[in-house]
Structure formats: structure tokens, C-alpha cells
Predict the structure.
Amino acid sequence: MLTVGGYIRISDIGRLGDGRDGKEGLIRQREDVYDLAKLMRCNVHRMYEDKDASAYKRHVKRNDFEAMVIDLERGLISGILAYNIDRIARQPRDLERLIDIYEQARRPMAFATTSGDYDLTTADGRFQARIYVTIANKFSADAARRVARQKLAEAGDGRPHKGQRAFGWMDSVRIDEREAELLTIARKDIIDGKKVATVHREWTELGIRSPQTPPGKTIGYTSVKYVLRNPRLCGYRAYIPQEVRERSGRVDPVEWLIERTDGTPVRGQWETIFTPDEWRELVDVLDARTKTGKGRKAGSTVTKRLLTSIARCGKCGSGLSSGTYARGTTSYEKYGYYYYCRKADGGCGSLSRSGPPVEDYMEKALLGNLMEQTTSLQSAPKEDPEPAAAKATLKQIEADKVEARRLRADGLFSLAEFVREIRRLEEKEQETKEKVSDLSAAPARAGSTAARVVREWGNYTIDMKREEIRKRVEAVVVQPVGKGGAQRGAFRPDLIEIIWK
Ligand SMILES: [Zn+2]
């Protein structure tokens, strides 16, 4: 992990108009830097903060900038993170001093800004930074960029959108009762298995229009999908940069949720129609359909996780399903997926928990339990379980090959990826076969089944692990957090109850 310095500069006058000046700007720039550090997995040694009222004067000394240059030279820090390059280097000669250090450093260095401009660790980036800083003094900064940044700042505050109303609201704040009701009904129906196309047909028959619907028409199918996935429904705020919008046409706002530095999504200041859990459940169901290309049947899950349906809801007892967190969120980065009680499977729909910590806890408990068995049953009955495990591995490899072929056929694998995957599987197959013949030649190793499971656990596939868990565990009950308990808090093992067979 690289240790870097964060550089922040504010101007009293607030003349840059990007929401990064004044007292608030100071806080925002700090947030920017910590966000970047998290993204780059860097450790922030110190925040260097300068305040200059006279930004364009050449002779104003920036004390913290000077301190930062020295620390960089001495190797106390190995890089700089900042909001943008304007904040770091106003004058070409400041930039040259930094470039000298980057060029001469004989260690890994980092350089990053929120706007992603000019990476000083590369020759290309240095070249462009030189040009930029040289002309930046002569021209006022790009007006469009300022507007974009101001918008981002507003979005970060959870201020409602100006401009067109969204489907479900009368204006930027107040709910439209009729549309809100349509959305509520549609959510329930879709979770129960109704197709979006059916919802679209019903809405068309009712003559429903969205704010984007052209005159004389009714709402389109794509719009129906879009309004159902809108993060605004549960108060989440998304911000899609103009460049991304222009480059890719319609963009999924679910992937552009704005988060605070503590990882919680920014909540808007408007009336909401769904709770965050309700919204996520819906998005999850819709996502699962696009992935499989057809409506998801009740009770089936797209990805079978280690504890799918083994883990049970502590409120209603239903087996838990799994879902993937919205991409771009901290939860996605940190955990990837979660278990939840799914209404469509007959559950109460009001419990969810991040996946990996629960699995980790279960695996440790199981292995601990097995180790105890090994020591208490000193000499266990002798079977030769290894060939059985190898057979299961071979079967799994065969299944993986079939899946790879299907992915290729569906165009989800490039030819290169497909070939790589097949080659990897064939190698594994070869290895396993060799291992089996070694084993049958060598005297069968003694040891209980439990010992073997413990030893081989790391090589087990998810299906094999599930099988072992099912043999020994009736259920893993996930208890609700209870009132006031933060869902995002640290993992609570006291809320996980393993019922052994
Ligand atoms: Zn439940």
C-alpha cells in the first residue's frame, strides 16, 4: 500500500465556481481525496491544505505545497491525490518541480485526481499536464466543466434535480399519488413473477404517459423498465457525468449511485415511494431476468451461493436467496452479494445480510467442529474417500466445460476467453486424473472422513462444500438486526445460529 499526500487548496473568493471553495469546498475536497485513496488503495499520510485569496499572483507562497514537495522528495510520501490538477499546480514552474521528482523517483509512485486528469507517473500524462498548465493561466477554465462539477456537488448534497419531473412525482419533491400507486403495484407484481412487458401492456391500456413520452403517445416499454429501476424511488441519488451520457446513450443509473465517504448512499430531500430494500429487491429481480434472458421462476436463483436455502430467515423461516449489490457501491466492492428473504419464494421479504461474513463464519464453525471429531475419533473407519472426491471434481469439471460452451454460444465469452477457460479446465482434469492414479498406487492413507474434509476444504467447489454442510447442518438461521441496529455495521456472529444435525 502506497503512502501518499492529499493536496487541497481553496480560494476565499470562490471564483472557480466548482463548489470546491470556501468552507464547504474544503470539506468536499477532503472527501474527494479520501474517496480516491480508497479507490487506489493508498494510505493518506497527511492532508496538505493551502488557502490562497490571490490565486493568480505568482509570489504567494503556498506553505503546505512547499512542505508536500519536500516530503515527496524525501520519500515520506510516494504520491499526490487531489481534486484536480488546477488545485495542485497553478504555475508551470510548480509543475516542473513535481515532474522532476516523479521522473527521478526510483520507487513506485502514485498520482491521481478526481477528474482523472494527467497522470504524472506516465510520460504521456506529464506531457499533457505541461500543456494544460501552460495554457490554463491564459484562458479561463472550461465553463462546461464547471457546470458539470457544480451539478455533481448538488447531487452529492442530495438536492433534487432541476428540470423535468420524474415519473412518480408531480415536481422535484412531491409524490404523484396515481403514478406512485402504479409503481407500487408493478413492483409487487414483478417480484411475484409478472413480466415487464405485461406491466407495459396494462399501463398502455390505461393511457399512462411518462414526462418523456411524446405528445399523443403512451409510455414505451424501455421507459417502463427505466422508471422501475430509478434509484430516486427510494431516495437514492445518482449522478451520470455528461461525457458518459453522451458516449453511451441511455445509462443505467443504478450503476452511478452517489455515496458519502462512509459508503452510505446519498439520500435525497424528496418524498420516496419505496424503501431502499424494496427498491433493491426489485432491481435484483429485473437484473436476474436480463442475465438469464427470461423471467425468473419462483424459487430459482441465478447464482447458487454457498448458503442459498441453507441459510434461513430468522423472522419467517424461509430459505434465503442471494442477490448482488448495485455495482459501484461500497457494499458491492466490499461484499459483492447478500442473502435475503425473498417474497417471491413465499418469504416475509424483510431480512437481508451481506454474504461473505456469514459464509466465513459458517465455514469456520464447520471446520472447527470437524477438527474436534478428528481428535475424538483417533482411528476412524477406513474408507478410501479420495477417489470419491476426485470423481466429484471430474464431474464438476465436465459441468464447467458445458457451461463454458453455452456462454460461448450465447456470445458472453469471447473466443479468447473461451479457449483460455477450456484449456484451464483440461489441465485441471489431467491433474485430477494423475492424482487418482497416484493414490490408488500408494497405500491408502488412513484418516477419518472429517480429517479429509478439513484437509481438502480449500479445493472444494461450492457444490461440494454445500454437500458437506448439508450432511452436518440442518439450517443456518440469520436473525434480524432489530430496531436501531445498523444493517451496515460490523458483522454480528451473535445473530447467526447454526442448527447442527
Ligand atoms: Zn423472512
Q: What stands out?
A: The CA atoms of residues 274 and 319 lie 24 Å apart. The longest helix spans residues 415-441. The longest strand covers residues 43-51. The chain has a mean pLDDT of 79.
